[in-house]
Amino acid sequence: MPSGVPLAIFLLPFFSFIVISFIIRPFLNSKPQLSGYITTASIGTSLILSLWVLAEVSSAPGHVLSMPDYEWLAIGDTVIRFGVTVDALAAIMLIVVTSVSLLVQVYSQGYMHGDPGYSRYFAFMSLFTAFMLGLVLADNLVSLYVFWEGVGLCSYLLIGFWFHRPAAARAATKAFLVTRIGDFGFLAAILFLYSKTGTFDIGELHHLALAGAIGGTVLTWAAIGIFSGAIGKSAQFPLHTWLPDAMEGPTPVSALIHAATMVAAGIYLVARMFPVFASSLTAVTTVAAIGGFTAIFAATMALVMNDIKRVLAYSTISQLGYMMLGLGVVGIGVANDAIPLEVGLGLGVAVGIFHLFNHAFFKSLLFLGAGSVNHATGTFDIREMGGLRKVMPWTYITFLIGSLSIVGIWPLAGFWSKEGILDHAWDHQTALFFLAMITVFMTAFYMFRVVFLTFAGEYRGSNAGHSGASAHAPSLRESPLVMVAPMGILAILAVISGWLPVSSFLGGESESFFGALAHPIAWVSMVLAALGILLAYALYSAKWLSSESLRRRFAPLHTLFSRKYWIDELYERVIVVRVLVDGIFVLLNWFDTRIVDGIVNGIAGGTIVAGKGIRRLQTGQLQAYGIAIFVGVLAIVACFLIFG
Amino acid sequence: MNVYLLSPAISLCGLAIVVILLDLFLKRKWILGAVSVAGLIVPAAFTLALWGREETSFNGMLAVDEFSLFFNLFFLVCAALVILASMDYVSKFRAFQGEYYALVLLAATGMMLMASTRELISVYVALELTGISLYALTGFLKDPKSSEASLKYLLLGAVASAVLLYGMAMVFGLSGSTHFKDIAAAIPGDVMGNPALLMGMVLLVAGFGFKIATVPFQMWVPDVYEGAPTPITAYLSVASKAAGFAVILRVFYEALGPVSLDWGMMFGVLAAITMTLGNVVAIAQTNIKRMLGYSSIAQAGYLMIGLAAVSALGRSGLVFFLIAYAFTNLGAFIAIIAISNKTNSDLISDYSGMAKRAPLLALALGLCLISLIGIPPTAGFMAKIYIFNAAVDHDLMWLVIVAVVNTAISAYYYLRVVRVMFLGAPLSEEAVPSSGALRAALSVACIGVLLLGVYPWALLKIAETAVSMFP
Questions:
Q1: Is residue B94 situated within a structural domain?
Q2: What are phi and psi of B310, to 5 degrees?
Q3: What is the mean pLDDT of residues A606-618?
Q4: Calpha distance A472→A377 (Å, rounded)
Q5: Nearest C-alpha of chain A: how many angstroms from B21?
Q6: A94-98, A156-160, A298-302, B106-110 — which is least confidently predicted?
Q7: Nearest Cα to Cα of residue A36 among A26, A46, A44, A48
Q8: What are phi and psi of A307, to 5 degrees?
Q9: Which residues are bridge partners to B56 per DSSP?
Q10: For B154-162, what is the mean pLDDT?
Q11: pTM, 2 dp
């Protein structure tokens, strides 16, 4: 394989972004459909090249291809090389990103049809895909960080795509700021690791971590710093609040960025740095605990949401929590020496990434289904849907397959990877295993609550007066082929992606098709899932039970969940507004403008004031500033004498 | 005495005189600006012709080396961009247009001399030449705010000069010489045992700290930045600050090199305090010029990390950061000049929906603000990585952590402007026009920001060469 192929995978979508921004938008604005074609073609080519890379990697010894790298910049003696990593993990991620992105681009041509920002949309989507592919291929922490910020920026631009809607504008800013909190931990960790090891190269860092050349405390702190970046990007507790709001963006964006790829970048980061994590028991325990807790925590909120995209958003957070849990529990096994190191490193990556792989397909399918429903009804509120099974049979079938897959019913994709996570949780962290089991039940319930409310029963909405969410007039009919076809392909993938030998390719174990049914854990989890589906059926389809009376009985819990544990209020009203904006910033500004003037105002109070122009000069500010220079000199000298 | 070595400064001074004379005859005043910019080619050419020399002349007062030649070019580029950005602005003046350009050029002459001397008296003279030109420029609008700013700047500048002279006197008294080389040979290696040296050093820091606006010598900044004509604010925030850093590099490495352990630590602590104060107070600002004033204080804090890391890496990091900061901050100010030419307002709330009224200006301003935060792929990111790396290398992890936390805080107020521009509702439908000169200056700045962010290699090399002659 020519060494330029991985680079071309990354550059093609980037090229599409350049062409759209600098040629199509300025000169060919009357033909916006060109933007869609170029984006689709470039990403399609990237997918073909990614398949080539995958084939090469699977035949290479150790599943690693060595690639040439280039000197990017030299800082003193440190040379940062810009190279690409092509190993099993990267190859799988390339496939996930290019395939989901391709299908989403095809779908978008229908969904965004007629939108005034059509070209802008595809320009951002191309740029996002390019950055995401760059992130996957990066072989050192600096370029990884550059792309990490790049995908965040594109996410910001795409959440706020309909920027004339205040909610979208707010959500975009919130997403950017909240994820940045984590990113700064990540950046600090990169610099910290560099200060201790003198390298940014990921391969070298792995080597040093495994050889024990980095101290235990250093590793723990570095891993936790890196993990804080992952918490922000993958919307784990306590930085999860941005993802549900990010649903204000166009639905295909939610499918690509906020379900399949960018939010999975946090998982990818932990997997990529797995040897560093696995060398510290504290770090992997943190990963497992945050993941396990987030899984159930987000699921409780998904139980009560009425906006179909928000249910899916909380579901995404919850599933990402599963992936973190998978990485964490295998890491605990490795750190405790329960799993031999040479097995454990591949196994951890395999357990986490296998679920990422399957989730990418079934979750983007569910989002595209939600978009299709919205395309027809003009709303995302499941209380105003119902009975859509008859008018939208394809959307119904594919959404049902996606739901069964996420719930983890044999033999659909979700079953295989979820079993892997549950098995290892049982082996290495029993408390988290039970949380994960309860989450299985909740997942089944909230997904089928959506399925029944949306597709079963009678239509409850009114066709009039919904035009805010998308540019189309609502009409109850199946979406066009350009939208249904990608959903069909994703539905097939949501069934079969779990059968692919992804896990063993990444270095993990694989189950035989029927052998998996021999495990008791598999049966227990499927029984729990079935109970969840049954409860949803009883409440929302057969109406054996009244959902209203159930809600009244559990009123406090319902309020707690639907108000999202008041965490948004805590962050925004209390910490940001009360403590920072109203408190510290105002105080400091006040100090800066008042105290310094005020002191001398008192002294200068008796001064005769003449002329308005000079008056402000004589408030004493000037003298105060002058005095400050001398006070500053004295303070510095005093510090020298005291601490010298 | 080799007058040829002084040719960049002499030709620049000559250009200023030519511009004043032309002002007497010309009716079409825009030619003055054009002549000023085009004329900068002459000193630039002299500078390039001198490249590679390493000589001193005028009894050791003038040093021509890669450091001074680099800064010559730096100030010439800054002056060119500021003049281009001023042309619309100045055309509204009824009189003194020639003087405006001439003062900008004379200030640049002073800055060039600040970077090219190895002797304390010359430092002082060059500093005053710069300072007096800038005091006059600050008051150029002659409205109450501008006059007040100018007077404040003048009086506080005088105080700072006095402090500086006091410090120089102390150092002279101790070493018996005003030449950096002799001072370095005469002073002891530790300030603690020598109160006069300690006092002298701290007074020098205060005097220069006024120029670069470090805490606690930064108080003039918001008032002066707000009152001065906006192009001059840009000039102050970039060129004048860079001149301050250039002279600090010279004086502290060449004259006070033996006590680098002490001043390194001091600059580290000042850097932490300066960036924190600048960033935190910037959050509460509603006027964009004041906000950028506090932001420039914060940036001075990051720049001082390069002084705290006493090493070749720290010096080149500082110089590279200066280049990146110059393009970024000039770009931001040029965009603001264009916008306020139309709206006559510097309130951030009046930038609402600017992306619809002036898409390119808003995009450019957004890019520069992103670079000020330090988000890739912009110059600001590379500069931060580079200078943080120097600090890490010098075992200043605590300072890097403070700086990273500060970067996080700063994102809030920079992004607020971006959000207002791109997501707010426009206050009027009127488009915001901009002149060709302004657009040219803005393009240069933005290309610089992006180029340094993607391919910093060439300028990193230049930055390394520029500081390579320090011990």
A1: no
A2: -75, 90
A3: 39
A4: 10
A5: 33
A6: A156-160
A7: A44
A8: -95, 120
A9: B63
A10: 90
A11: 0.69
Whether A476 and A379 have beta carbons less than 8 Å apart is answered as no
Is B349 part of any domain? yes
Task: Name the residue type at position A136.
Answer: V
Q: Judge whether B375 lies within some domain.
A: yes
Chains A, B: CB pairs < 8 Å: 150
Residue B246: the pLDDT is 95
- Collect contacts of A337-341 with beta carbons under 8 A, ≥24 apart: A338/A427, A338/A428, A341/A210, A341/A278
Q: How distant is the Cα of B455 from the closest Cα of chain A, in angstroms?
A: 8
Highest mean pLDDT among A489-498, B126-135, B193-202: B126-135
Kindly write down the DSSP assignment for every residue of B381-431, as one continuous string.
Answer: HHHHHHHHHHHHHTT-HHHHHHHHHHHHHHHHHHHHHHHHHHHSPPS-S--
Instruction: List all residues 6 or more positions away from A107 whose beta carbon is below 8 Å from its beta carbon.
Output: A252, A255, A368, A371, A482, A483, A486, A487
Tens-digit pLDDT profile for residues B265-319: 999 999 999 999 899 888 888 889 989 999 999 999 999 999 999 998 899 999 9
Give the angle B422-B423-B429 at the CA atoms, nearest 5°: 75
Per-residue pLDDT for A74 more than 80? no
- A616 at the B interface (CB within 8 A)? yes
Each residue of B266-298: b (16+ CB within 10 Å) or e?
bbbebbbbbbbbbbbbbbbbebbbbbbbbbbbb
- What token pair was written down for A80? 């940062």
Percent of chain A with pLDDT over 70: 88
CA-to-CA dists, residue B153 to A336, A380, A596, B149, B160, angstroms: 65, 59, 17, 6, 10
pLDDT confidence tier of residue A464, bands split at 50, 70 and 90: very low
Q: What is the pLDDT of residue A459?
A: 79
Distance (Å, rounded) from C-alpha A212 to C-alpha A219?
Answer: 10
Tell me what ipTM this predicted complex has: 0.83
Cross-chain residue pair A76–B313, CB shorter than 8 Å: yes
Q: Which of B210, B193, B211, B170 is nearest to B262 (CA)?
A: B193
pLDDT digits (tens, 9 = 90+) for A289-313: 999 999 999 999 888 888 899 999 9
The vertex-A253 CA angle with A251 and A259, nearest 5°, equals 95
Compute the distance between CA of residue A542 and CA of residue A456 in angstroms, rounded to an integer.
Answer: 10
Q: Which two three-digit tokens encode residue B303?
A: 């720049």
Q: How many Å lie between the alpha carbon of A421 and the closest alpha carbon of chain B?
A: 35
Residues with Cβ within 8 Å of A204's Cβ and at least 6 positions away in sequence, in order, are: A197
Asked whether B302 and B371 are in contact (CB, 8 A), the reply is no
Identify the pLDDT of residue A579: 64
* Cα(A621)–Cα(A611) distance, integer angstroms: 17
Please name the helix (run of DSSP H) or strand (run of DSSP E) that holds residue A64, with its range, or none.
strand A64-65
Query: How does strand A70-75 pair with strand A78-82?
Result: antiparallel
Closest partner residue to A626 among B159, B215, B375, by Cβ?
B159
Q: Which residue do the tokens 């075992």 mark?
A: B395
Alpha-carbon span A395 to A479, nearest angstrom:
8
**CB-closest option in A145, A177, A588 to B280:** A588
What is the band of A46 on the pLDDT scale with cuts at 50, 70, 90?
very high
Structural domain of B380: 313-471
Q: What domain count does chain B have?
A: 1
The one-character DSSP state at A617 is G
B223 to A172: CB separation less than 8 angstroms, yes or no: no
Return the beta strands (E) in A119-210 as ranges. none
Per-residue tokens: A307: 């906006």
Question: How many angstroms separate the first and last alpha carbons of chain A?
Answer: 62
Over range B178-184, report the average pLDDT: 91
Residue A44's CB is within 10 A of a number of other CB atoms, namely 17
Pick the closest to residue A68 from A134, A3, A139, A138 (CA basis): A3
The mean pLDDT of chain B is 90
pLDDT category, A644, cuts 50, 70, 90? low
Residue B365 lies in a domain: yes
Residue B396, token pair as written in the block: 């200043």
